[in-house]
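thought: fold this chain, then report.
action: predict
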Amino acid sequence: MVRHFAADASPTDIAETLAQDGAVVVDNAASAEQIDAVLNEMEPYIEATPGGADDFAGRNTKRTGALIARSPTARELVMDPLVRAVTDQVLGHATNYQLHLTQIISIGPDSPAQSIHRDQWAFDFFSFPQGYEVQCNTIWAGTDFTEANGATRVVVGSNRREDKLKFAFEETEPVEMTKGSVLIYTGSVYHGGGPNTTDETRVGINITYNVAWLRQEENQYLSVPFDVAATLDKDLQRLMGYARGAYALGYIDDVRDPICVLNPDAEAGLGSFT
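observation:
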């Protein structure tokens, strides 16, 4: 069963549980007002987003990205201190980590369950060594998550199982949580969106992080216009990818730190994400 933590829980306790179970919930990690602000800022973009192109994406599911460019409030969730402290530990074996993707997932009424998968399969289905985590992911509840409306379903402990396994729907459990709570899960845990059998839309704010020597799923350099990126806090800029991924990964021209593109006077280095 997915364990729930209070918003003032120890990041170490959460990270240790993630290592065992692959998923945890932090209850009431954001206020309803904060969640509403994100959804209000994103409303016109969500409205314009088409449904998924295939069954995996969900033909009645909308995936609306570019949250940093489009929603100032979403930037607060990206930089959430508790989530970041947990991610520091989950991905701390790598030299650096970065923002992997930002998107709002809106599962519409009468949607079937998504197939069970690992998010790290995005890396061309490469089988990473067991126990080496390459992603730390979050889904913030934009609405209450219930079994009926499509709560994410998880195979608890499957992060410690072999790769490319198949699980039946009955082997999963729904992660029910209230609006403003956040599901934190690893890229190695088997999971999938649940079936929405209601007449409401289940909304989740999906923000994920990955080790910086791997490519990002969402291209932040094109999703966030340069003139917007240049105005952001330097820590957020580095997390977006304007930083070296390791000693020599991602430099520009004469082996300069990429943060210099946005901030010519910035000090070189990996920033605070080491």
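thought: worth noting. The chain has a mean pLDDT of 96.
final: tokens above.
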